[in-house]
Amino acid sequence: MRYYKFLAAGRIGPFSRQTWSTAWRSEPAIVPCRQGLHVCRVDDLPYWLHDELWEVEVDGPVLEMERQVIAGRGHLREQVGDWNAQTRQEFVRACLARIAGHAAEECGEALDDGSLAAAAERLGTDGPVDLAEVAELALARQEGAALRGRSAAAWVCGYLADAVEMLESYPVAALGYAAARAAEARTGDDGVDRYLLERAWQAEWLTRRLGLAAG
C-alpha cells in the first residue's frame, strides 16, 4: 500500500516539527496524534495540504484511522514534484470554481441571472479572472438571498466572498476547507454528506493532477 505525507518546507512535520528523512525511522509505539508516523491515503490528502508532498514507505502493522494512517516504521521514498506553487494555485482556483458553482446552483434563476455560473466557468479555466468582481457578485447575491429568506444560498455566497478574501493570507488547505463547508451548507434532505463528497472530489482532483497511485 502506498502512503503519502504532507510536510512543511524542508521536510518538517507540520505538527511534530521533526525533520523527516529517506532513512528508515522507527517509533516505539503507535498513539494517535501523539506517537507514530502519521501518513495519508490518497482520500485523506485534502485534509492535510501543506508545502511538500512525499510518497512514504512503511513497514509492519498500521493503525487505520478515519482520516490518516499511523505506522510504527517508515521512511520517505520520493517527493511528488508536481505538487508545487503552480499546482497549489490550480487547486485553489479549482476550489473557488466549485464554491461559485455551488452558489450558482443554490441561488438558481430566482436569485441570479447566470453570473455566478459564468464566474464558476471562468474560474474553471486558466484564463484571467477579476476576483474583486467575483467577490462583489457574491456579496450582492448573499444580500439578495438573505432578504428573501434563502439562508442556504446566503451562506454559500458568503463562503465564496470569504474564499476570495482568503487568497492573500490563508494557506491552501483553508480553501479546500471553505469549499467543503460551502457544499455542506447547501439545501437537501437526501441524507448525503456533501462535506465528504466535496472532500472526495478534492482527493480525486489531487490524484488525477499529480498522477498519484491510489494503492
Descriptive overview:
This protein has 215 residues and is of the alpha+beta class. The chain has helices at 85-111, 115-123, 131-147, 151-166, 172-184, 194-210, and strands at residues 3-7, 25-26, 37-39, 52-58, 62-64, 69-71, 73-79. The protein has a four-stranded antiparallel sheet with strand order 1-4-7-2, with no helix packed on it. A hairpin with a 4-residue loop joins strand 5 and strand 6 (69-71). The longest helix is centred in the middle third of the chain and has 27 residues, at 85-111. It starts with a strand and ends in a 5-residue tail after the last helix.
Question: What are the main properties of this structure?
Answer:
215 residues, 4-stranded antiparallel β-sheet, elongated, alpha+beta
Mean pLDDT: 94
Oligomer: single chain
What Rg do the Cα atoms give? 19 Å
| Proportion of strand residues | 5-15%
Poorly predicted sequence stretches spanning 5 or more consecutive residues = none
Q: What is the tally of beta strands? A: 7
Q: Cα distance, first to last residue?
A: 5 Å
Relative helix content: 40-55%
Looking across the biggest beta sheet, what order are the strands in?
A: 1-4-7-2
- H and E order: EEEEEEEHHHHHH
- Largest β-sheet summary: 4 strands, antiparallel
Q: Number of helical runs?
A: 6
- Looking at the structure, what is the overall shape? elongated
Question: What structural class should be given to the helix and strand makeup?
Answer: alpha+beta
